[in-house]
């Protein structure tokens, strides 16, 4: 039996006995120390940074202000519980999503079940989850709570019935900033809602109803952590979707294509209000909690932002667009048959000093070399394939051959095609192979179909081995094109109104609007050609908020925007933020959007280092400002936002 250690282990120093475990032990000791330090500082009032996959627009450069548990109340209305029981319903079904949200977000609500307790809270955020039946005294207490500065989030038909379950009207919600316009039913627009339509608290929306998507506006106080135009499917719950209007909206209920009936163009499904600096804030959701079940996590992000705003926590995000603009617009032509009509189209958009985009079917372009040269000299030009046949389903070899063929076609006409890096598939027919082949061929943007993204913003397609600055940008077509409008059999006047309505919806959302037209449909005196001047006049009149850009400009900007990395810390009602500009050239006209903690309270932005570039404050509305930087050289910058 061996009694001695042949390796001399017993005689080694302690640190040598630990061996390779030493590094792990050191890391563990450091981690415990850091954790103890951060925990102590958090107790002293530090705000810990929030990490989430729900960063703005799916990019790591955005920052948000997450809600805290402090002062959050969930009112479990006994009158509402009794009312649902009387009609065979279960109120807990509408309370469960809130409890699940709190558990998932690690946020605790204090649940209030006694109406008398409403008089004992003076501040914080009080949630009314589909609290349909409220007594007169409850309404008085809730109004007093808000008047003295408390915030309220009400969902669905809260307060539309009294304690006996009898119809009481919409006055309570109107006091929170939501004016009733009825319900969304089969074949919207709907007739006005009545006591009878909500008699059982379940005014059913037929499953075939088109308007079942919550479409978010971008960069609003209640939606800043998600992309402009984001679709959220609301499912087929039995509780009706309500129609509201108000002074400030953050989302609307639309169909998948994001088309809203003219009668409902000023409506919203998520509303917010702050009557004065002394009163509390309010928010109203036009849908019941049962609608959360279809896509809970996007709704959770909406609730995050809403509670944060109601708690008056400022938030800061990278703006989608440069120069403090709120939305962007591209007009492009698929230049195919009727190729010479492109010159008529070009002259029209040139009348408002706009340089649009032309995607050329190259086998046709070869037949019109002079027109092709004219367009390439003065406008943004890209490829629309070699022939009018989709790429989808074709082999990689076939697709590569076609890409090479179309490039050769334009190379035979134009002296230099190096700047032509945009593509639009014929018939919007492409697949993953197409995206792969385009990236390998060095294309930098692809104008795609409306289903390519869930939002209405550009998105990157990145492949392994492709650097960030060479990643391809998807530009989803976001508006009805001339083919869509033609199917609706609209005359020139209604076509004009449709074009303007789609552009206005895009502007209100802060989204990327893309209108696609086909050269064969732009004959002289065609319906589209007659409608176009009024549409262009609308864009010109709104140029202070809409960035009119070519497809290549938008794709280039999305790459430029990606060079700005933003992090921020909320300290009470102050924000300190750091920006890092990567790359080797200045970033021009970058913007941030700041959600204000108090209505109309403009901030001061102070550099924390000597020589830090100044920023311009551009008011968007009572609740938001844009912080615009003319030029930022590569490097790191630190600022503080102070509210006077």
TrEMBL record:
Q: Which residues form the NodB homology domain?
A: 355-443
Record has Membrane as a keyword: yes
Q: Does the UniProt entry include the keyword Membrane?
A: yes
What keywords were assigned to this record?
Membrane, Transmembrane, Transmembrane helix
Note the Pfam families from the entry. Answer: Polysacc_deac_1 (PF01522)
What residue ranges are annotated as transmembrane? Answer: 21-38
What is the protein name given in its UniProt record?
Polysaccharide deacetylase family protein
User: What is the scientific name of the source organism?
Assistant: Undibacterium hunanense
Q: What is the lineage of its organism?
A: Bacteria, Pseudomonadati, Pseudomonadota, Betaproteobacteria, Burkholderiales
